[in-house]
Amino acid sequence: MEDLFLWMMEDEMWFSDAVDMLLVAMLKDESTSLHFKQPQNARSLVGFQFVNDILTGHPMRCYNIFRMTSTNFRILCQKISSSLNTKKTSTEEQLAIFLLCVGHGCSIQKLAGDFQHSAESIYGFFKDVLKAILSLHDEYIKVPDSSAGVHPLVGPNSGNYLFKDALGAIDGIHIQAVVKEDNMERFHNRKGFLSQNVLAACSFDMLFQYVAVGWEGSASDMRILRWALEEGGFDVPTGRYYLADFGYTNTSKFLSPYKNHPYHLAQFNRRPRSSRFVASEDLYNHRHAQLRNVIERTFGVLKMRFKVLDRMPKFQYRIQT
Ligand SMILES: *[C@@H]1O[C@H](CO)[C@@H](O)[C@H](O)[C@H]1NC(C)=O
C-alpha cells in the first residue's frame, strides 16, 4: 500500500498528460476512419477502443487512469450495469467517463470532445453512474456491529491495548464547494475558502464506515457530529468508540485527547527521548494521536485519488455532495 502511494505521488505529474496523449492518438485513428464515412460506428468505437486499450494494457496505466485496477473496474461494471441505460453506450464507457471526471477532474466539455458524445450525454452518463454507485453505499460504508473483532493495531501486543475497543477514527474534511453568490457566506470556512464540511469515520484499515455530506463550510465539526448521531443514522455500537481530536467533546463513543497536554506528534518529537512522556496523559495522547492519524491518511489518499475534490466543477450542489 505504502509503495503504491509513493508511486502515485511520483507519477502524479505525467499521468494526466498520458490520458491526453492516448486520446489524441485515438482521435487521429478516428479521423482516418471518418474518410470511410462511418461516423456512427466510429463514434462508438472511440470509447470502446479507449476503454479496452486501457483495461488490457499495463496494470499501472489502468490504475493511473481509472484510479482502480482493471479487475475492480470490471467488478464495479457488473454491480452498476443493471441501473444504467446501456443500449447505445456500454457500461464500461460510461464508467470510464465518470472515473476520468472524478479521478482527474476532466471537464464535461473535454470528455465530450474526447469520447465524441454531446456534453448533455456526458453529464447524463456521469449522473447515472453516480447514482448507481451511491446505491451501493449501504453495502460498503457501514459501521460494524458490537461483535466486530479487535483490530491488530490495538490488539494485546500492539502497545495500544488501552484502545482495544476503538473501531477507528473520525474527523471532518473541507471539500471545495462551488455555490451561488447568496450562499457564499455560509460556505465560507475558517481557512478562507468556500467548502462543504464532510464528517467521516474510517477503520484502521482506511475504509470509510460512515460519511455525512452536504454541510456548509461554516458548520462546526461538533454540530455535524450531533446531527449525525441524532438524525444521520450514525450508530456506534455499545462499548465501542472512535478516536476524535480536540474539535469533538469527549464522550464514551468518541474519545478525544487530554487537553493541556501535548497532542501533535511533532510536539512529542521535539522533546528529548528520556522525558518524552512526563505524565501518563502524555503517553495516552501520544498513542491516541498515532492511531487517530489514520483518518488524516485516509483523507489524503481520497483527495489524491479523486482530483475532482480539489477541482470541483460547477455542478448542482446536490451532485457535488
Ligand atoms: C473520555 O471519556 C471516557 C469515557 O467516558 C473516559 O474513560 C476518558 O478518560 C475520557 N477522556 C478524557 C481525555 O477525558
From TrEMBL:
DUF8040 domain span: 44-134
InterPro entries found in the cross-reference section: DUF8040, HARBI1-like, HARBI1_dom
Keyword terms: Hydrolase, Metal-binding, Nuclease, Nucleus
UniProt cross-references to Pfam families, sorted A to Z: DDE_Tnp_4 (PF13359), DUF8040 (PF26138)
Principal location class: nucleus
Bilayer-spanning residue ranges: none
Stated name of the protein: Nuclease
